[in-house]
Amino acid sequence: MNSMFEIRRAPLSWHNYLARVLGTEVAEKISARAPGVYVCGGAIRGYFLGEQPSDVDVFVHDEFVAAGVHAALSELGLSQVFETETDVWRTVTYRAPTGTPLQVIMSKRPLLGGLEGILEAFDFTICQAGYDCVTESFRLHPDFFEHLACKNLVYTGSEFSLSSLRRAFKFQRRGFLLCDEMLIQIVRDAARINFDDPAEMARHVAGMDPDGARRIRPID
Fold first, then answer.
1. Model pTM?
2. pLDDT for 189 beyond 60
3. Angle at CA 105, nearest 5°, toward 219 and 55?
4. Residue 90 and residue 84 in contact, taking contact as beta carbons nearer than 8 Å
5. Plot region of 59 (φ>0 → left; ψ -120 to 50 → alpha; else → beta)
6. Does the pLDDT of residue 206 top 60, yes or no?
7. What is the set of domains in the chain, with CATH numbers?
């Protein structure tokens, strides 16, 4: 089966970047060629833009892989700071020695397609970028570089359209451009939500995650 994502070998500068952002020991633990461990999203954009990411998202394939990552971070003396959970994702946040938040994210649903399955769930082309720790390569949306260079925000669809709308405003504050067509697509998806159903509304509000304020709770 042909992939829609481009594959690019990660250069040495990527490993140096990750070590600078997380600290050498943490970066080595994360990228230790463990199957089912992927770095996605903002850290990839930050690397190609030459910027410091606001956090590093590490996605894991299942509970077994998650347990291994948590154990490895605990061995380095990192403690869990926050825990975030929806009906789709469970996120545990650490703080790296550099001060950068490190989020270990696991899908609560069967994850098909590995890294590409994760990227397909992301809502904008500039977010559909990840690093596979086993193959030491990037998976990138075909338009990733063009849209990142032009700072174009192109919506690809989302299960949580309210979250995408909020994220779109966040990206706009960072200088990205959201055209009317993309805004209309997000609003049309949001219009399918049954706002009269308390359970459905709670699910979408939980998925909005406004800077973690609604869902993140300290670990006891």
1. 0.88
2. yes
3. 85
4. yes
5. beta
6. yes
7. 6-218 (3.30.460.10)
